[in-house]
Design goal:
- The structure is a single chain.
- This protein has 208 residues and is an alpha+beta fold.
- The protein has a domain at 40-175.
- The chain has helices at residues 25-41, 61-64, 106-120, 128-144, 153-156, 193-201, 203-207, and strands at 49-54, 67-75, 81-89, 94-104, 124-125, 181-182, 191-192.
- The strands form 2 sheets. The chain has a 5-stranded antiparallel β-sheet with strand order 4-3-2-1-5.
- The chain is globular, with a radius of gyration of 24 Å.
């Protein structure tokens, strides 16, 4: 007589494992896409730059509100495009947002991605040196005040050339009088980051 407590074997001869849910095709595809993009981006710095776009107001961020979009697009070896977009808060946070997309068909890049970006902010073409200087110096400025870049910056940065590839000669300033300021949409609710750090950490640690 068969012991009823023993689980029946499947046709394949394997005993089903309790508690394990099948992996959906969508989950597999998402994981594969993310892995493929990481592999692709390891060579991103070597691809030729197709174009660079910059938003207005970077010359005088105090008057423009401080938010500037910086975009770099590179041509992949498979004749597709990879684009990295950095939303730079020149007054406070540094890299407020970032993302990267790869394997965009030329028509898709122009009609969809580029059109979307230029619709969000008036963008003009610029030299690669300007994009690199703004992004790298924004990282420096925020780091001085212990403000970290957006979580996706590390991935988007794969499309940037190494620091030092281009001279940093543009007259760019960050913050207000050298201090980071976060502009709020609520009137009278602007945030002075050094003051907050002092209140939370104490004067000694805030200056460390």
């Amino acid at each position: 007589m068969q012991d009823k407590s023993t689980p029946k074997s499947s046709k394949s001869g394997k005993t089903p494992q309790a508690g394990r849910k099948p992996i959906s095709q969508r989950t597999r595809k998402t994981a594969t896409t993310a892995t493929s993009q990481r592999i692709i981006l390891t060579e991103g710095q070597s691809w030729p730059i197709y174009e660079c776009l910059i938003g207005p107001g970077w010359q005088n961020p105090a008057q423009s509100g401080g938010l500037v979009m910086a975009v770099i697009t590179r041509a992949q070896p498979n004749k597709r495009f990879a684009v990295a977009n950095f939303l730079v808060d020149m007054l406070g946070r540094g890299i407020k947002n970032a993302y990267v997309k790869t394997n965009l068909l030329p028509d898709t890049y122009v009609a969809t991605e580029r059109a979307y970006l230029t619709n969000q902010m008036s963008l003009t073409t610029c030299e690669p040196a300007l994009i690199h200087q703004i992004v790298y110096q924004a990282i420096d400025f925020a780091d001085e005040h212990r403000l970290r870049p957006h979580v996706d910056y590390a991935q988007a940065a794969h499309l940037l050339s190494p620091r030092g590839t281009y001279p940093e000669t543009y007259p760019i300033t960050f913050g207000i009088d050298g201090r980071p300021l976060i502009i709020s949409n609520t009137p009278g609710d602007d945030t002075d980051i050094p003051t907050i750090l002092t209140d939370l950490l104490g004067p000694d640690r805030a200056k460390a």
